[in-house]
Amino acid sequence: MYTSKISGLGVYVPDNVVTNEDLSKMMDTSDEWIQERTGIKERRWIKPDSGDTASSMGAKAAEKAIANAGIDKKDIDLIIFATLSPDYYFPGGGVLVQKLLGLDTVGALDIRNQCTGFVYGLSVADQFVKTGMYKNVLVVGGELHSKGLDKTTRGRTVAVLFGDGAGAAVVSRSDDQNRGILSTHLHSQGEYAEALTVKHPSMTKWVPEVVADLDNLTYYPFMDGQLVFKHAIVRFSEAIQEGLQANNLTREDIDMFIPHQANLRISQYVQKKFGLSENQIHNNIQKYGNTTAASIPLALTEAVELGKIKKGDLVVIAAFGSGFTWGSVVMRW
Ligand code: ACO
After folding, report:
1. In the annotation, is 200 catalytic?
2. What is the whole-number distance in angstroms between the Cα of residue 275 and the centre of ligand 1?
3. Quick one: pLDDT at residue 18?
4. Together in a domain, 140 and 247
5. Average pLDDT over residues 227-240
6. 48 falls in which pLDDT band (50, 70, 90)?
7. What is the pLDDT of residue 294?
8. Which of 145, 200, 260, 282 is catalytic?
9. Any catalytic annotation for residue 231?
């Protein structure tokens, strides 16, 4: 078996900053409510005429990750693209990333695991690299939420949470046996698929049927927030514990924990449970909101750029999201 590691990281966020104050002009909400419940101060939403999409933002982040890895685009062997806000119903956005990057006809795989999408993507990349099939796999998470949110008081519980953006990582074969991705663990529980969902349009109810029913709001995200919260804190903890145990490590070994940025209160609950100090966790939901598949690379890249992650550090990533899906990645940086 080969060793795999993250060799490059990159992010892209739209310039347009939307503060909680801005939201309070669109719906009945307040900076105080949003910050108290979620920790979010502002998020990025694309300007409607910007032309940005999940895949175009993903491609911009990917360009930076490839440059950061110090490789050439032609060295990418496979693209893995995670999003819940695709440009098209089909084909998936992976092929659009391939086109925008001008890559050779490498494979493009789409991941539909929402907030856990990047963890699933890293896990798939890790398998391809460890088995020797590929040397460099590009994992991209890109999200364009702002066009699909109900920005009225009716949709305020969900609309205030989500932001647009993208992040990418290059997962590469490495010669260093002591560093790299140590383990990945993936889980799902479809019993709760409807607890956090955009149901339609889909083949169970296509566009004409949705449009014909004025009371039908199933094209907006639905979230049972309290149920999601309760499951998230349990599953985050399980995922971390499972990853640590698989590597004969304990919570004392964690140098940096990068949680999916679902809600600052969820991250803080998990931080407290594992007895982690402020230096052992990195959150940036305050600036970007929940960017689902993009949130982990956005936080990981920032932590690396701030010098919070150093060579040899034990980095634990965990995510939970719609599906329900959850998982972890444990890495020696
Ligand atoms: N501004 C002001 N008031 C609001 C807002 C808002 N944006 N949203 C809801 N309220 C009101 C409600 O109407 C309700 O009012 P009422 O008491 O008069 O009926 C009150 O605030 C409390 O509403 P709840 O929904 O009970 O609020 P809760 O304390 O559960 O917080 C929240 C909501 C923040 C969404 C919380 O449930 C949560 O964080 N859940 C987890 C969310 C999450 O992590 N989602 C991402 C998952 S990952 C993925 O895959 C997408």
Report:
1. no
2. 26
3. 98
4. no
5. 98
6. confident
7. 98
8. 260
9. no
Confidence of residue 162 (pLDDT cuts 50, 70, 90): very high
Q: What is the mean pLDDT of residues 269-284?
A: 97
Both 187 and 220 in one domain: the answer is yes
Average pLDDT of the segment spanning 110-129: 98
Annotated catalytic residue within 113, 115, 136, 200: 115
Q: State the residue range of the domain holding 109.
A: 3-174
Count of domains in the chain? Answer: 2
Amino acid at 67: A
Probe ligand 1: pick from 19, 30, 32, 37, max atoms within 8 Å of CB?
37
Residues 11 and 45 in one domain: yes
Write down the mean pLDDT value for the chain. 97
CB-hemisphere CA count at 13 Å for 260? Answer: 33
| ∠ Cα 14 16 21 (to 5°) | 135
pLDDT value for 150 = 97
In a shared domain, residues 130 and 151: yes
Q: What is the mean pLDDT of residues 194-222?
A: 92
> Of 174, 202, 228, which marks where a domain is finished?
174
Separation CA 95–CA 127 (nearest Å): 21
Please tell me the predicted confidence (pLDDT) of residue 214. Answer: 80
Q: What is the mean pLDDT of residues 176-192?
A: 97
pLDDT above 90: residue 80: yes
CATH number at residue 227: 3.40.47.10
Answer with the one of 139, 156, 174 that is the final residue of a domain: 174
- The residue whose CA has the least distance to atom 14 of ligand 1 is 157
Cα(12)–Cα(57) distance, integer angstroms: 6
Q: Are 93 and 101 in contact (CB under 8 A)?
A: no
- Asked if residue 204 and residue 152 are part of one domain, the reply reads no
Q: What is the CA radius of gyration of the chain?
A: 19
